[in-house]
Fold this protein.
Amino acid sequence: MTITLADLAAAVIMAALTAYALFGGADFGGGVWDLLASGPRRDAQRALIAEAIQPIWEANHVWLILVIVLLFTCFPSAFAALAVTLHIPLALMLIGIVLRGSAFTFRAYAGAGEATDRRWGRTFAIASLVTPLLLGVCVGAIAAGRVGVRVGGGFLARFVAPWLTPFAVAVGCFALALFAFLAAVYLTLEAKDGALREDFRRRALGGAAAVFVTAAGVLLLAHGAAPRVRAGLTTAPWALALHAATGIAAVTAIVALWTRRFGAARIAAAAQVALILAGWALAQYPYLMPPQYAIGASAAPQRTLALVLGALAAGTILLAPSLIYLFRIFKAHGPTAGAGQRDA
Amino acid sequence: MTNLLAARAQMAVSLAFHIVFAVAGIGMPLLMVVAERRWRTTGDPVHLELAKRWAKGTAILFAVGAVSGTVLSFELGLLWPRFMEVAGPVIGMPFSLEGFAFFTEAIFLGIYLYGWERISARAHLLAGLAVAASGAASGVFVVIANAWMNAPAGFRLVDGRPIEVDPLAAMLNPAAFSQVLHMTIAAYAATGFAVAGIHAAMLLRDRASAFHRRALGVALVVAVPAALLQPISGDISARFVARWQPAKLAAMEAQFATEAGAPLRVGGWPDAAHRRTRFALEIPRGLSLLAFHDSRATVAGLEAFAEDEWPAVRVVHPAFQVMVGIGTYLALAALWVVWTAARRRDLAASRGLLRTLVIGGPLGFVAVEAGWVVTEVGRQPWLIYGVLRTSEAVTPMPGLVVTFSAFTLLYCFLGAVVGWLLYRLVISTRRGAPAAGPSGVEAR
Ligand code: HDD
Ligand code: HEM
Ligand code: HEM
């Protein structure tokens, strides 16, 4: 088997999607915990979430844009089909994205009194809940092979039935659980105060349980709904190794949380999410979107692929140091690093 | 409302909304950097305060720009899937490059806004410069993509599929230079005049305020050169259109007949049914002179084209007049500023000048919107000029009027909130009270 430029482009898109899940996804998860903030330290929880997200969410958000532009540049017909079949969930997701980002910023900068702040806060939190759900639904519809398939019938059959399925909704819940889990794990490291850290440790453990339950639901439903992905995940030669690795990462994350080794928990949780996405991608290979859009057949001309991949490589060399610099400034958790400084 | 019309309207609303934030995203970082640099060289703390206040406004604008831009990236496919099928492999390249510019911009904006205490003063200024440069770069890339829609290059369409695709040739399309130049200057002119207008209004109430004097000074440093260059750049654009998109030129000038030594029309009401333009002030041979730099040149009128290829003259012509009128106004205002400064007079001493600047405040943005209406509506009925019609590209998804209404309402609401927040920011400055920072942290 040789790796083609198209394979490479698909792998890059998958990597960008994974980065979006690990960084942008966690920002959405933060919004979920804002919604679920409770107990005596409710306000402190919300403040911590805001402080953690504020300087980085816009950079994290760009991963999604990268996924979209690479998709329409490298796999234009697949993108067109995606945009037609999933018009409704994507449009709703966009509304979620708009409300999440702007409400978050408005709350941070309005300073217009408690009541207004709370209203923006709630908008931010609800949008953070709905958007990952819809993202997962779209992924579910793709995995189930429902995108770009010519179906007869009317509006419902063409534009609703492909994504409003129990399987796709289960994938939506799974995505939501994963993002919330990631966010809680990351927040244990952000917290400066022991009690607050414990709050998020408990939430991370709860999130892990939710991930487990929703994952089981997805696998169960995949049997009927997404046979190709399910077959890939159970019978392919790499399947066992992948399951083992994912399982180890999941267990490590829980053990590390249990024993309060938060640095290790962060790495394990991120690895777990990345492996899950890799599993999905491998199970679908050689399809970008089964059953119509194989990676090779739906790719853009070679010259486009070569140029875009070249530009990506060059851009990465420029970009990586900046990104590391950003995270070094705001996420270096030394004992004194910038406790609570937030000045614009 | 037909589906096609709803799709066009939704695209127009989304872009018209986004462009406001995009323009501010290009212009504001430059203003902040100029102010911060003046603080570093003069040690005048007012300039530092200025940079911080502007940074707050920019943070709000940037967030809304980012989310509305995301909507657009999806909408290209959601509304025009067939367009993206053709255009993706050809002109996706600048969009991908734009992605890197966004990354750089978002990264360094985060550092700029929240890093005042965490990095050295020098690194902070450099971060600001990186934001300004990458903001301009994102504008350049996306306008290159739009220029390609006006002057498609780098592919051939055979059986509905692009072949012989050359993304570099597509990026170097003939419209790219003039459009990029004009748009980039427009961004600085519009932002500069908007900021100058706000602070001029404050100075009219309180002539002594050091804060507003400095602010006006910095804003004009950006606004004045841009406004003086814009008519020159506009002339380059117009001559491009004359050569490459004659139907658009005819619509811009409401020129129905093909004639040698065509007049330049100021104002007027195009009457497509009778193929003439009423009530216009006509400057003999003016159009031939401006469009081809030859007073006897022949200008093709709309009658030279099939009627189903006419752009909407009643939209394009007035929009063009508005832009050029504003361009003239801003250039004259800039000259007044130069004249006053050259005589070493106090800019804030002249009520007349301040009032002129206040009126100029919103006009730059109006010109940007009008200019885009000229470009986009003037391209109709084509989406990719001469290659793909807008009506062929629209999505089969029915009921677009619903999404169009939803996004329009959403944008009206967001626009109102942003306006209100910025107003509060400005008002708090006037009262001398510290403006609210993130989560109400007070400005230092
Ligand atoms: C501050 C804003 C501003 C100002 C003062 C002007 N323009 Fe402009 N113009 C724009 C902002 C703009 C724009 C919004 O940026 C456009 C839309 C697309 C583009 O590339 O630039 C544009 C487009 C545009 C086009 C169409 C290009 C095309 O369709 O490819 C022409 C012919 C002109 N302009 C000409 C002028 C002239 C002769 C001006 C004289 C004073 C002028 N503009 C002032
Ligand atoms: C941000 C500034 C812009 C504004 C205000 C703007 C405005 C408009 C307007 C008014 C229309 C509707 C035209 C009509 O249907 O009569 C339109 C359509 C469209 N624009 Fe733009 N435009 C902008 C920039 C761009 C850019 C940079 C691109 C692409 C790279 C673009 C792509 C499109 C597309 C695909 C359509 C729909 C198809 C069509 O009507 O031709 N626009 N825009
Ligand atoms: C079809 C047209 C367009 C698309 C698809 C588009 C896409 C986007 C996207 C995805 C973002 C968000 C980046 C982030 O998260 O930081 C963005 C922001 C931005 N866009 Fe656009 N854009 C379009 C038109 C334009 C035009 C015409 C300009 C200017 C000339 C422009 C300039 C910018 C700038 C400067 C930003 C930075 C964010 C800000 O400062 O508000 N865009 N755009």
User: Anything to note?
Assistant: The first helix of chain A runs from residue 5 to 35. Chain A touches chain B through 73 residues (CB under 8 Å). Chain A has a mean pLDDT of 84. Residues B 8, 11-12, 15-16, 18-19, 80, 83, 142-143, 145-146, 369, 372-373, 376-377, 379-380, 383, 390 surround protoporphyrin IX containing FE (ligand 2) (CB under 6 Å).
